[in-house]
Specification:
Elements (H helix, E strand, L loop, with lengths): L19 H21 L10 H4 L5 H11 L6 E8 L6 H17 L14 E2 L5 E8 L6 H10 L9 E5 L1 H12 L2 H21 L6 H25 L5 H30 L5 H28 L7 H22 L1 H9 L20 H12 L1 H16 L20 H12 L8 E5 L4 H9 L4 E10 L2 E8 L6 H15 L7 E3 L1 H35 L3 H28 L9 H31 L1 H28 L7 H33 L28 H4 L1
Helix pairs in contact: 1-8, 1-12, 5-6, 7-8, 7-9, 7-21, 8-9, 8-11, 8-12, 9-10, 9-11, 9-21, 10-11, 10-18, 10-20, 13-21, 13-22, 14-19, 14-22, 18-19, 18-20, 19-20, 19-22, 20-21, 20-22, 21-22
């Protein structure tokens, strides 16, 4: 065994060197848990998925949703019952429909839509279907609570008579059922996935449990923090953002744990005292971890500039999660490791004074191969990414609302049946609000607008009158959107009417328009912010630009490859409008993480070894841990693909695929190859970009200055 050169006698002045500090940190986290754990359980009570809360703040459809909620009866849930029989309805079928209507109208008074305009039930022109609409007051419950009993009330019907219960409330109810228990489901699956990967990574029966405890504490703290943010600042958190919060904290927190453990294991070979070893590990790993967290937090906070409320709300929610993960993994996690000592690594316990054999290993051999064939490695990597990016030529059209479910629920199939038998009611109804004095005039204008099939006046209430407008075209099509825009233009021209147009399809249209605007604003802002953070970390200009360029190319490749999978293999009918922005944010902010871990280690080694040897040493030292981190983060995002909503499946798959692409190809091959090609100029304008000098002013050539000899 080597001589003890770093025993307890040479403890540095750092606070971690004191015996009582780790116990104090653990104690503080226990006290924090007493307050935070009860609050974390309240997060689900403040999640909101209503249109008025999640829609674009300044959109016209948002104004309609807010106004509808504020008017008497405006919060009613509208269901559409569509009965049909191939070959035509029988007299018994028609009697059943009338009986069901009477039963439901008595059970859920006081009003049924359309009751003042004629018979409540409506037969189709082909004689094969009948329908009626039912408005149910929110006093009976939310859509997800009502849709089941409403459907059960219409179960008693003749054999062969089919029924689909659809309409806005049924769709909302089916959507809510997707998210019912989603937080617990995501949490449990994520914990299992992370635990399995940690066991495989460390091959230890106990070590895997410590990162999981620390990340779990971070997740509970993050949920409590978000709850306080919602209560204190009115931030919008929906079920989707709540699921993403869990994924972010577990994925990023585990990455930080892997990086710190790798440095801690190295330090234990050189320092007998575990507290001293942890101080050195933190000094080595913390700058890269903090820079990584700062990059992700800065990127997430750029979402505050988005107009879409659900997207804007994800900014502070995600940032709070990342910060909680950062604090937990730099305080609680090291404290637990120190208290448990070396034995936590059993059976592969790192022994003090033992020399770790300098084996070339997989990553060392890869670095040597890249060094010998720099151009081949660089061009080959770009070629692979370019081929994947070709997938962007596939179906990148916007996903329609009724295509949001991998397995279409009854409310979605009901719209298809409705359009088949009632083509005049083919689109989702628009809602037009106008001042009562102008209702007749606005109604006439709407009826004369091309693309409008039916327009029915409603009631006057609270100083407003409403008109239900049915487009002739299918929901969420270009033709229907054109009709919505024409109706808006026509009613806005009526001076004094103050007419506004909303409804489900109008909401989807406004969301798409706003998302496109948010992309044009937020994406450049994210790039600028991330570049700034990279510049501060690496104290250079060229390196951040190169790293950012590789991440952008990686994103294009990941997106293209994912579009191919969505379109050709999974059969999805488009890309949800929110996916590109969210995927770009996660892949740029999280993808840069691995480049930060690699580049910061390369810069550290370059000071001693020069750019070429520094990069090869960094690749060899960080290859395993960064790959493990990439696998963990990809696996946590892949959890989203288990959920029955196309949007979450798309985000989960795209980010998971992009993270793997970034960790296994971009960071492992492309970045090292570009570094070796560019040489010390990568660090311009820092001191590392200038040739080193020997005593007497003689200039010494670095390895990276001799490309002819190294190729």
């Amino acid at each position: 065994m080597a001589v003890n050169t770093a025993s307890s006698g040479d403890l540095p002045p750092g606070r971690w060197a004191s015996r009582w500090v780790p116990w104090l940190v653990i104690g503080l986290w226990v006290v924090l848990a007493v307050f935070m754990v009860p609050l974390s359980g309240k997060l689900s009570s403040v999640t909101a998925d209503s249109a008025a809360v999640t829609l674009p703040a300044g959109a016209e459809s948002t104004k309609v949703a807010v106004l509808a909620d504020s008017l008497p009866g405006g919060e009613d849930n509208t269901f559409v019952f569509v009965y049909h029989r191939a070959g035509g309805l029988t007299d018994a079928d028609r009697a059943t429909v009338e009986r069901h209507y009477d039963t439901l109208a008595k059970r859920y008074p006081p009003k049924v839509a359309g009751a003042d305009e004629g018979p409540p039930t409506r037969p189709s022109a082909d004689g094969e279907a009948m329908m009626f609409t039912l408005d149910v007051s929110t006093t009976y419950g939310a859509p997800e609570a009502i849709v089941g009993p409403v459907r059960d009330a219409a179960k008693d019907r003749p054999a062969g008579l089919e029924l689909e219960v659809t309409g806005p409330a049924a769709i909302d109810g089916d959507m809510e059922s997707v998210f019912d228990g989603i937080d617990l489901q995501v949490l449990l699956i994520t914990v299992l996935v992370v635990a399995l990967l940690l066991v495989i990574t460390y091959r230890s029966p106990v070590l895997w449990f410590i990162p999981l405890v620390a990340v779990g504490a971070a997740a509970l703290t993050a949920m409590a923090t978000v709850y306080l943010l919602v209560k204190g600042f009115g931030i919008v958190v929906n079920d989707q953002n709540s699921a993403l919060l869990t994924i972010l904290v577990f994925g990023v927190g585990t990455d930080y744990a892997l990086l710190l453990i790798a440095r801690y294991r190295e330090a234990l070979h050189h320092h007998e005292n575990v507290r001293v070893a942890m101080v050195h590990a933190l000094r080595s790993a913390a700058p890269a971890i903090v820079a990584s967290a700062a990059t992700v937090v800065a990127g997430l906070l750029c979402l505050l500039f988005a107009d879409l409320n659900s997207t804007s709300g994800l900014g502070p929610i995600g940032a709070a999660g990342i910060l909680c993960a950062l604090v937990a993994m730099l305080t609680l996690f090291p404290a637990l490791l120190v208290v448990l000592g070396r034995r936590i690594f059993w059976p592969a316990i790192p022994r003090f004074g033992t020399t770790v054999a300098a084996k070339p290993g997989l990553w060392g051999r890869l670095g040597t191969a890249i060094s010998r064939r720099r151009w081949v490695a660089a061009l080959g990597s770009v070629g692979v990414l370019g081929v994947l990016a070709i997938g962007l030529a596939g179906n990148t059209g916007a996903l329609r609302q009724q295509d949001q479910f991998p397995d279409a629920p009854e409310s979605v199939t009901g719209f298809t049946v409705l359009r088949q038998h009632f083509p005049e009611l083919g689109g989702q109804p628009m809602t037009v609000f106008t001042r009562p004095a102008y209702q007749e005039r606005v109604l006439d204008i709407v009826k004369g607008t091309p693309g409008v099939a039916v327009a029915v006046p409603g009631q006057s209430r609270g100083g407003w009158a409403d008109i239900s407008v049915f487009p002739a075209d299918a929901p969420d099509t270009v033709e229907e959107y054109d009709t919505i825009n024409r109706v808006r233009t026509a009613v806005h021209a009526v001076s004094g009417a103050e007419a506004i147009v909303g409804g489900p399809s109008a909401e989807h249209l406004d969301t798409e328009v706003t998302t496109s605007r948010d992309e044009r604003l937020v994406i450049p802002l994210v790039l600028i912010v991330v570049l700034f953070v990279l510049g501060l970390l690496l104290r250079a200009i060229v390196a951040p630009l190169i790293l950012m360029a590789t991440v952008i190319v990686s994103f294009a490749a990941a997106f293209g490859g994912s579009v191919f999978v969505f379109d050709t293999i999974l059969g999805f009918k488009g890309i949800d409008s929110s996916v590109p922005l969210l995927a770009f944010l996660f892949l740029v902010a999280l993808g840069v993480d691995y480049n930060i871990f690699l580049a910061s280690r390369a810069r550290e080694e370059t000071v001693r070894l020069g750019t070429r040897e520094g990069m090869l040493k960094a690749l060899s030292a960080t290859g395993g841990v960064i790959t493990s981190a990439g696998l963990v983060l990809a696996a946590t995002f892949a959890v989203l693909t288990t959920l029955p909503l196309v949007m979450l499946v798309e985000v989960g798959f795209l980010v998971a695929f992009g993270v793997l692409l970034d960790a296994l190809l971009v960071r492992s091959v492309l970045v090292p190859a570009l570094t070796l090609l560019i040489g010390r100029r990568l660090w311009w304008p820092s001191r590392l970009s200038r040739p080193a000098e020997l005593p007497g002013g003689q200039r010494r050539l670095a390895d990276d200055e001799e490309p002819a000899l190294q190729r």
